[in-house]
Protein 1
Amino acid sequence: MDEFLARNGAMLADGLARHLLLTGIAVGVGLALSLALALVAWRRRRLIPLVTGTTGLLYTIPSLALFAFLVPFTGLTLLTAEIGLVSYTLLILVRNILAGLDAVPADVREAADGMGHTGVQRLLRVDLPLALPLALAGVRIATVTTVGLVTVTALIGEGGLGQVMLRAFNLQNWGLVYASVGLMVALAVALDLAILGLGRALTPWTRAGGRS
Amino acid sequence: MIELAGDLAAWFADPARWTGTAGIPNRMLEHVVLSGLAVLVAAGIAVPAGLLIGHTNRGALLAVSVANIGRAVPSLALLIVFVSVLGLGFRNALVVLVLLAIPPILTNTYAGMRGVDRDVVEAGSGMGMAPATLLWRVELPLAVPAIVAGARTAAVQVVATATLAALVGGGGLGRYIVDGFAVRDEARLLGGAVLVALLALATERAMTLLERRLTSPGLGLATTGARPARG
């Protein structure tokens, strides 16, 4: 065990750090884009089918095919990996943010208007906070999914732990294959729990009454 | 860009592309057979299990856990880890794809059963239906839209992951992409990507139509089900 770690520890740590970075960029950029798309669609409801249709189409295209489409244009780069990874977060995030916004009770919205909130104030103080539980549920799914998809980017020279796994597989070093896969699963579970915890901390009102 | 489009057109126009083991018809057939078989086997396991869990309301935690674990294990990792057990080739790919297809079908079947109006079930048993009749004549038809939605999610995911199976000797359209990467052949890479994307979109479309066909006319067109993991 000590010998295994001495030989592979640094590679696994690098892979883990890179995996986390790739996931973080994808979910961060995806969330910013999705928030913008969801808010536009929420204001102009006619656009909802267009937004969910387009993001749904992107979601349906297999990851390996999407990367293959991009490589002739953007090469074997971080950009190629992130374009693919971000595009897969959009459907889940947009849908959940929209569902969260739609779940804000009309009474609450009217009360906010009656108290003299402007449109932007109401959005920031009422609509978005109340949409948070469902939106964060989407962030959890998107994050766990992205951890898995980062693995596939090993085929275009990225991949974090996926790169370690493929290299170990080619050398038939099964110990290292299992170690890298174990770390991927641990990373997915850890991030999932971290976002769950963050959500609880940010939405104390959901625990005041019953459970949600 | 224009040059690339020309290369791509030439790749598709090459008569050699349409015959033999490495030809498009054979690769497409491999892909469809592998994916179709995986979804059928998975449905054969997950639908009865989901119906049982939903009907008896026991083992719900198991269903949820299976779905969560299924999402946390990357599909490419599963394909590679199972090589150590089953070796390279079709069998390994099939087993992994079945494992991937089970969670969405299981959770949707269970959710569909949970979503059946309790009043309707009570009316059924009040009419003297035996539990088996109730399951078959009342609960199942009402849960079908959710079940097929789960199968649609599973099918799209399986078609996508079957592409990755080319890395572990599973054949299929993924071979064009994997080989295209390996020898830096952009026409082959793009050709494979076009074929795989079309197959995935066609699968989604076909499953949506199936969902409409199988939904009892009395239910209208309720669309159900979330789309969980993908590969």
Note: The CA atoms of residues 50 and 110 of chain B lie 5 Å apart.
Protein 2
Amino acid sequence: MTPRLTITPPPAETGRSISLPMVGLGAITKLYLLLDGQGIIQEIGPTLERLFAGRGLRGASVFDHFELRAPDLIHHLEELRVLEGQKLQIVQRNPQGLRFRGTVMAVHHPMGGLFLNLSFGVDIAEMVRRYQLTAGDFAPTDLAMELLYLTEANAAVVSELRAFGQRREEARRQAEEESLTDALTGLRNRRAFNSIITRLCREGSPFALMQIDLDYFKQVNDTLGHAAGDHVLLAVTEALRASMSARDFIARLGGDEFVLLLPGTAGPARLEEIGQQLIAAIRAPIRFADRLCYVSASIGVASVGLGDRSSPSAILAQADEALYAAKEAGRGCIVIKA
Amino acid sequence: MYGLLLRALQGYICATFGAQRWVQIMDQNSHRVEGFEPLLSYDLGLFREILARSCKLLGRNSATLLEDMGTFVVTNPALPAPRRLLRFAGNSYGEFLLSLEELPERAKLALYDISLPRIVVKTLGAGEYLLYCKPSQAEVIHLLHGLLRAMADDYGALVFIEFDERPIAGEGDLAQPALLIRMAEAAHAPANPFYLVARP
């Protein structure tokens, strides 16, 4: 005769019990322990058997292998018996500490005692991964598969959302980059310049502002056309870039107007030296098709000391004034206002 | 749903015909060049428009294109999620077929506001099924045609799937696009491995 498990009814309802063959129990649950009257494990569900292979579960006391709480620690079988139908927290006594939830019920069995039914808790994905569980390790009615599906679907959605966020961020950054860049030269534009000088002024950082205006640029445009003009602007851009350090900021404000922001406290002599180098570099003839274009540069400098609280517009006006003076002085000159 | 479909179309065309083709399709349409976002909402009209342009440019009819796209969605090694999520629905091809009726709800578990078409799977006889959409939608049926065939291979089942347009008992007298599915052998070849937790 096959071993059977009879679920005991309360005494008042004698006659209303059900009886199941032990082998068929796996269709309902695959995670169970059948305890005898002493709390010794007599039968083990097939999936639990896989999880605890070689750990000598059968024949050992349930309390040796598991810590049971509801919510207080349970030490004896008698304490467990009165918790029938309640939710139990069951943790493997082992460094791995597999966590289950469970419930207990009294049953009729030759070895007779308690039927402890378990299910996976939040560790389910970890257990499936570690023990390579398959769909067959879960009872058909178990929602484990749905939980695993959900975990994965959720991960897919989140990663899609993250990718979406990244694409948006990239598009935003590109739009911002474009809005701050001068299309012809690739230098920063007036908007970028305004934002930088405003920040420098707010911080009270020392810096020098060099306003550069090309001389004879109009002649190039008028005699050789706009393509030549654009070519000259690109060549000047190259010359400016070549003499800049990474800390310096350079922008084209429009037309043949460039600005340089030099962070730090360079003295007038040093600024003069930098300016003269720029003028010399820009003065070099620029080849366009079979013609040579000659331009030069006038530079007006405003120097802002540490803690100087001038407004951006005051500093710009100062540099403008210096530039005007340089133009008056005969072009190809630099004038510095401290 | 059309966000997912448009993104799938984009992925399929880029992978199969090259990104340049996709750019051409989008150019014609003056749509955003960066393409479609799977989680954003688009409407059926836009999907049909892009699909029609794709078909024209690639010289394919829409049934074939959608069928191939359905196959691509579950076989693209770069994006294993669709195939995996579908495999969770059943341990066998038969279980998988029946689970398609739960597809809208399963999708909602992951994305609460997504709405997928309701799919009906009727058992005609042993191993014979009739699948249709409610309300009927030919595009989805063609897409499922390719997808179901690829999933049959994945499960190792020998399955014959035919597109058909017929009135369906209990669904009015109008002919509706449907799939006739005949499962000749559930375990014809070894199934592709499916681990319940994806391996890195």
Note: The first helix of chain B runs from residue 2 to 17.
